[in-house]
Amino acid sequence: MMDNRSVVMKLIVCIVLLSCVWCDGIDIDLSRFHPGPENHSVFRKYYTITEDSTKINITNINDDVGMFIIQVHTFVENVTLSTNLELTLHSYVTGTNVGLLWGSDESSSMFYVLRNIAVQKEVRILLVVTLYDEYDPVPGGCNLSFDTPVAPYQVITYNDEYLSVNSQAPSAYGVSCDEDRVEVAMFHLYLPEYDNNNETYFHGIEKMLTVKNILKYGTQVSVPENYFKYRRLYSSYKGTGEVFAIVATYNNKSAAYVPAVSYGCDLLNWQQSCMGPVTDHWKLSMAVQVIFGLFVCFMGHKFFRMTLYMIGFTFGVLITYLTISLEENFTTTERAVTSFIIGFMYGIVWMFFWWKFGIPLLSVHLAFLLTGFLIASIVFYAGLADIPVFTNGMNFWATFVSIMLVSLILLIPFTMYGHIFACSFLGSYACITALNYYVGGNLQYIIINTYRRVAVKNFNYAVIDPPFQMIDTLHSLLWILLLLFGIFIQVRDQRGKPPFPPNRNEVIDAERITERTSLIRAEVPPPEYT
Ligand SMILES: *[C@@H]1O[C@H](CO)[C@@H](O)[C@H](O)[C@H]1NC(C)=O
Ligand SMILES: *[C@@H]1O[C@H](CO)[C@@H](O)[C@H](O)[C@H]1NC(C)=O
Ligand SMILES: *[C@@H]1O[C@H](CO)[C@@H](O)[C@H](O)[C@H]1NC(C)=O
Ligand SMILES: *[C@@H]1O[C@H](CO)[C@@H](O)[C@H](O)[C@H]1NC(C)=O
Ligand SMILES: *[C@@H]1O[C@H](CO)[C@@H](O)[C@H](O)[C@H]1NC(C)=O
Ligand SMILES: *[C@@H]1O[C@H](CO)[C@@H](O)[C@H](O)[C@H]1NC(C)=O
């Protein structure tokens, strides 16, 4: 009885094992694939995997194939690609965009895809095999520090401020790794903003698989010749997926690294991590910012003292936040609270200045400076920061300050109109960035990138090249509209009024004068000379 049962058990186990040998395997027949033109040098197909380990049986590799890169791409879930079923050192790689290089004389080979921690019951993978001949450069061929000696993949790490895309140097047939003669070109491609759809993700990867497509769809970034060459930094735009690609070129022959994607945040925690802070505090302060932004944009000059206070406050917050960010041992909350308190005092001090001295030209300077700051930030955001000379801090800040000063000098002669412009410009920007928080868009990074340049170490090496998509275009148009409309309304309101409101001293003086002069001057008609 017992024997019988154990025999049945064994049989069942056998059948299960056998069936898995059949059902788990992915067979790839490469007989129709050759290195060379793209349409028959790249195998790509989607599979859905449910088991913990899946065998990939690659057969009929043609003789002209010198090497190939097998890539596995998954959305969110980490998988391990290995050359053995048992993981041995230097023979596997784990991640969402992984790849291994194969190069031997055999006509078949075997790989395994292992799932470690399943996020969902099944995982969809994009399996890609790109074929090269033996004289093509080898992506990641120079053994440096990665888990596998040849590492054709990229490893992305990120923090709040930037993404770091790490790779290994390429090698080529007959070239020593010390010579550094294989050239690399780096590219990136933005996925649609605030889109965490898996289809979009895979679609983006498919665009960056081959050298030809990378050149077609990717945007090239400069490659610094130093420590950051293979640790390329990219400014983080949370919630916007970014596909990274590297092309290695030697002797007119090119090969592509395995593309990698990052959203700069945790996809499993999309709302909280990728769509920005979702606390009630934050929602409230953004709503307040919209209201104050609109107020300054349309009535900033009319309510001069109120605006002075707000400009002083903004300036104080900005300066304090930038300054204490240089010191690393404060948390974001501490920084925010400190800058708010100090900003509050700045506002009061600035109002006091006006109350005491009452010189409009002095009082509007701060608004002009902030305008200059924003203009300089826009200029660098729009492309200047990606010109290699500006990795040098000296060049960067000298140019930045020059732009600020030029803006200041241009505004000063038109004190009243300058102030109206500054109010509408700053107010509409505040309003737009707060709106971005609710509806998406990346214009807030105009200021954030300047902040990062001040406070984040090595950020001068980061690629800025921001995404500028439909929603950003719409926001920019809205911004311009608000600006023009704000100027129009304010100039209209200002008609027939003195350019600046009287301050306390002038009011007192004026009262004194009227008391005294009413007797002497006003009632005496001017003498007539005929
Ligand atoms: C590859 O593309 C070229 C031109 O696009 C075409 O002429 C050729 O037939 C294609 N080859 C295969 C195998 O699809
Ligand atoms: C791989 O596939 C080929 C062709 O389908 C087959 O002959 C071979 O036995 C397979 N190898 C393994 C280990 O399953
Ligand atoms: C995948 O691996 C990375 C690096 O080890 C880790 O940070 C990340 O949390 C993992 N993702 C999942 C979904 O387990
Ligand atoms: C790669 O480098 C490591 C350390 O630098 C070394 O231990 C290892 O043997 C090297 N592997 C190969 C295949 O050269
Ligand atoms: C991919 O996204 C669709 C919705 O667009 C969803 O239904 C599906 O479950 C997702 N697949 C995976 C593997 O996450
Ligand atoms: C590379 O190709 C270009 C044109 O396709 C040719 O002019 C050049 O001589 C080639 N260089 C090498 C080293 O083969």
TrEMBL record:
Residues 1-23 form the signal peptide. It holds the Pfam family Ig_TM7SF3_N. Its main location: membrane. Residues 287-491 form the TM7S3/TM198-like domain. GO terms for biological process: negative regulation of programmed cell death. This is TM7S3/TM198-like domain-containing protein. It comes from Phaedon cochleariae. InterPro entries: TM7S3/TM198-like_dom, TM7SF3. Keywords: Membrane, Signal, Transmembrane, Transmembrane helix. The lineage of its organism: Eukaryota, Metazoa, Ecdysozoa, Arthropoda, Hexapoda. It is found in: Membrane. It is a multi-pass membrane protein. GO terms for cellular component: plasma membrane. It comes from the Eukaryota. The chain crosses the membrane at residues 306-324, 336-355, 362-384, 396-414, 426-448, 468-489.
